[in-house]
Write a structure and sequence with these properties.
Layout: H1 3-13, H2 16-30, E1 47-48, E2 53-57, H3 61-70, E3 72-73, H4 75-78, E4 89-94, E5 99-100, H5 101-108, E6 111-117, E7 124-130, H6 135-143, E8 148-155, H7 158-161, E9 172-176, H8 181-187, H9 198-201, H10 210-218, E10 228-232, E11 234-235, E12 240-245, H11 247-250, H12 253-262, E13 267-269, E14 275-277
Parallel strand pairs: 12-13
Antiparallel strand pairs: 1-5, 2-4, 2-9, 3-11, 4-10, 6-7, 6-8, 9-12, 13-14
Length: about 280
């Protein structure tokens, strides 16, 4: 990693608190730490702890190799910047409670339902995640409640960015262990962190999205979503403890061997949340 290149870029493009935060994150990124990783045997259910990060990548092994070699670095630092609502950071799905991976996949592979309770100025809007194949039964329940006036649904954002039961767009996602003090020190530099003032986070946001972001940050729900983190600059690949693969890769032994060769101390799991290649010695 060319630390000096990134340092010069940060000093050139940022100022004040934002610059200091990014330089601090870069220094942390470059530190070497031994990370404790969960170990599994083939067939075991993967467990996710609260605070675990999951990050999906487009493409197949080309992007996989780049990530392993360079880490999770914002594309605003590694290539020609492209328009993003949240920039100069890396998006992560932030696990909000201890759960099994299979239950998490089942939940985000469903829908986001938003409904209104009551009518007029006193109505209340609520958003919820509806698990995979539960849409019909859930909407039937809503229809039988007199206080529910209207509702609408959309796919979850996860379907577009990590392997899911309903889409083959993404085939690889990394599971990052964030339980160490070192990982926590990196994770706190999150654009969604409400402790950062407006001046500090402004360089991370498209100016058109900025007012809406401030409102969403203070009123997060299942629709906006309340499951996202945007880590300033990025995170090192040493935090990876496992790889989730989609249906196209699960039975491709050549690809699985490539992943295991690159990450010998990590497990590989499928959309059933079960380990298909273990890392227990």
């Amino acid at each position: 990693m060319n630390k000096e290149k990134y340092k010069k870029d940060i000093i050139k493009r940022f100022s004040n608190k934002t610059r200091d935060l990014l330089l601090h994150q870069l220094n942390l990124f470059c530190e070497e730490h031994q990370i404790t990783k969960r170990t599994y045997e083939v067939g075991e259910d993967v467990k996710l702890s609260k605070g675990t990060f999951i990050h999906g990548i487009p493409g197949l092994l080309d992007n996989f190799d780049f990530t392993i070699e360079n880490g999770f670095i914002s594309t605003d630092f590694t290539s020609v910047p492209r328009p993003n609502k949240i920039c100069n950071s890396v998006g992560m799905w932030n696990i909000k409670k201890n759960c099994l991976l299979k239950d998490y996949i089942n939940e985000y592979s469903g829908f986001t339902i938003t409904y209104t309770i009551g009518r007029g100025p006193d109505s209340k809007q609520v958003s919820e995640l509806i698990p995979y194949h539960k849409f019909d039964s859930y909407t039937e329940e809503l229809n039988n409640k007199e206080e529910i006036w209207t509702y609408w649904g959309d796919k979850t954002k996860e379907v577009s960015f990590i392997p899911s039961l309903v889409s083959n767009k993404r085939q690889i996602a990394f599971i990052l262990n964030m339980e160490s003090e070192y990982a926590n020190a990196l994770a706190v530099n999150d654009v969604w962190n409400p402790t950062f003032d407006e001046e500090t986070i402004k360089p991370f946001l498209d100016y058109r999205y900025f007012p809406k972001f401030l409102d969403e940050r203070n009123n997060r729900n299942a629709s906006t979503t309340d499951r996202e983190s945007a880590i300033m600059f990025g995170l090192p690949s040493t935090l990876i403890e496992g790889v989730l693969v989609g249906k196209k890769i699960e039975n491709n032994q050549e690809m699985l061997n490539h992943i295991k060769d690159k990450l010998p101390d990590c497990y590989i799991c499928n959309l059933e949340g079960k380990v298909i290649i273990g890392n227990k010695n």
